[in-house]
């Protein structure tokens, strides 16, 4: 099994990555009749982060080596990048499964500013958008990546659902992928996720709909205009 988890930075892609990994490990433990802890350790050892330029090669390597077969330890790849044609084709025929995290673009913009401020003192900061206006290019790029990903009919994790009921996410994802994960197993997956939840909030206040407290209506509408698809999906 090969699963790619994707989405804009600061849209809870790490949380989606973790939930997907735990779900895949639970399914692997069930199918191979092995201990769940052993399965989880094996899946963790196979997780990757790849840029869009590296993603195609990583996916091809997993598929050609047999790492993506039903009996193999699941491979989970996280990316914030653009899906190239070769990867998208594999997603469309379900050789590769795809999970996409979605958050309202104004909330993403605020979180990007937070991250930039926290890394301002670093020699090589990952984030360099120090005000809302400077996030425009990033938001527009993430919109382009999202539209591309939607062509693969991914399973979508809306940001607010992580706070409302993660169990529902697991059940929905499992059903979408045709995996035998019932509600009891889903709850155990969420319990493991909740145990380490604090690690997913780095440089991110993690507050749903924080835009209404920190931005004007005009500022919100301006950002929404940059990413109408992301806006619509985040409100589902």
UniProtKB/TrEMBL annotation:
Q: What is the lineage of its organism?
A: Bacteria, Pseudomonadati, Pseudomonadota, Alphaproteobacteria, Rhodobacterales
| Gene3D superfamilies for the chain | P-loop containing nucleotide triphosphate hydrolases
According to its UniProt entry, this protein's organism is Pseudodonghicola flavimaris
* Name used for this protein in its record: Sulfotransferase domain-containing protein
């Amino acid at each position: 099994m090969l699963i790619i988890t994707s989405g804009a930075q600061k849209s809870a892609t790490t949380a989606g990555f973790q939930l997907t990994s735990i779900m895949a490990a639970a399914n692997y433990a069930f199918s191979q009749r092995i201990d769940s802890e052993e399965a989880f350790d094996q899946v963790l050892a196979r997780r990757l982060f790849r840029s869009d330029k590296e993603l195609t090669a990583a996916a091809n390597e997993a598929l050609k080596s047999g790492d993506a077969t039903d009996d193999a330890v699941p491979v989970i790849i996280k990316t914030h990048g653009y899906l190239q044609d070769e990867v998208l084709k594999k997603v469309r025929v379900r050789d590769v499964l795809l999970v996409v995290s979605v958050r309202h673009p104004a909330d993403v913009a605020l979180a990007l500013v937070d991250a930039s401020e926290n890394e301002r003192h670093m020699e090589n900061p990952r984030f360099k958008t120090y005000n809302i206006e400077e996030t425009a290019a990033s938001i527009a790029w993430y919109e382009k990546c999202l539209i591309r990903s939607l062509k693969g009919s991914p399973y979508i994790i809306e940001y607010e659902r992580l706070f409302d009921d993660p169990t529902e996410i697991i059940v929905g994802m499992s059903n979408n992928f045709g995996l035998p994960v019932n509600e009891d197993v889903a709850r155990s997956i969420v319990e493991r996720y909740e145990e380490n939840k604090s690690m997913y909030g780095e440089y991110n206040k993690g507050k749903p709909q924080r835009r209404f407290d920190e931005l004007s209506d005009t500022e919100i509408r301006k950002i929404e205009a940059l990413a109408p698809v992301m806006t619509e999906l985040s409100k589902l």
